[in-house]
Design brief:
CATH superfamily: Aldolase class I
Oligomer: single chain
Strand content: 15-25%
Number of strands: 12
Structural class: alpha/beta
Order of helices and strands: EEEHEHEHEHEEEHEHEHEHHH
Mean pLDDT: 90
Length: 288
């Protein structure tokens, strides 16, 4: 059985790492390379670095940022933002990316996906899709225009797989940044529709959300952004929770597997008696 992945998504806007809420509100977090270094230390399985402003600015994600992040990254790095041709894919791979994430270009045609798969291999190309629930169905959301396209999510992911995508990155617009949990219904349908790996994004607010989606669906990995940024050792703690129900990678020297963790994803305080004997030996004060 393949172990499920816990993935951190770094969304940048105009070269700044941001917190995304509903695809329409963005709060600055800091420098992406600093977050990448912390997430690596906390045991993340993979990183996604996505420039959400590149397509709107008609530019490619900043290669210098890709180089800085990749220099801090000890795990696979997937990069996306403004990619329109295979020459740009080559530039990003040279800058340190392991995989390439296509989104906006796929709403126009599948040429970049098809050519990218032929030149660089299927395992290199990730097809990203933004989903929004309508009255009738789950549809593709075009973040550049801010409009819902008349394209079914399930039909579209099947088309991406046929065209040669090696993986699907599924974003839920409605739950983005709200920390209400993943859309299990949507994720289950998509992961059953295709035979390639699916990574879900949108809604993680605590470790139980990550545990639920990995346990209840066939997704290959769960991605989170905002939750990981604002809780110390958040990835390590999430892994400790998932490890109770599923096999998960544990590649760092410390873990919280034996610790009590609350619903918000914070480690419960040990008793005074345990703390007293945990880190030091009590030595009686010597009388002089």
């Amino acid at each position: 059985m393949l172990k499920k992945r816990i993935i951190a998504a770094l969304f940048i806007q105009n070269d700044i790492l941001v917190q995304s809420i509903g695809f329409n509100k963005y709060l600055p977090v800091g420098r992406p390379e600093i977050a990448a270094e912390a997430f690596n230390a906390w045991g993340v399985d993979e990183l996604f670095l996505i420039d959400i402003s590149a397509s709107k600015n008609k530019s490619l994600i900043n290669l210098d940022i890709v180089k800085k992040v990749s220099s801090k990254c000890l795990v696979p790095l997937t990069v996306g933002g403004g990619i329109t041709n295979i020459q740009q894919i080559g530039e990003l791979l040279k800058a340190g990316a392991d995989k390439i994430c296509l989104n906006q270009s796929l709403n126009q045609n599948l040429d970049c996906l098809i050519e990218g798969r032929k030149v660089f291999g299927q395992q290199c190309i990730v097809a990203s899709i933004d989903s929004l629930k309508t009255k009738d169905d789950y549809k593709v959301f075009d973040y550049k225009s801010g409009k819902v396209l008349d394209k079914s999510i399930l039909k579209t992911v099947a088309e991406y797989e046929t065209a040669g995508a090696g993986e699907i990155f599924l974003n839920d617009v409605e739950r983005d940044g709200l920390r209400l949990g993943y859309n299990i219904e949507l994720i289950d349908k998509v992961s059953k529709k295709v035979s390639i790996p699916v990574v879900c994004s949108g809604g993680a607010g605590n470790p139980s959300h990550i545990q639920d989606v990995l346990q209840k669906t066939n997704v290959s990995g769960a991605s989170a952004s905002n939750y990981f940024h604002f809780t110390e050792h958040s990835i390590t703690i999430a892994k400790a929770c998932v490890d109770k129900v599923l096999p998960i990678r544990q590649d760092i020297k410390f873990s919280y597997n034996q610790m009590s963790i609350n619903y918000d994803g914070r480690v419960n305080r040990l008793s005074d008696n345990k703390l007293k004997n945990l880190l030091y030996k009590k030595i009686k004060i010597e009388k002089i």
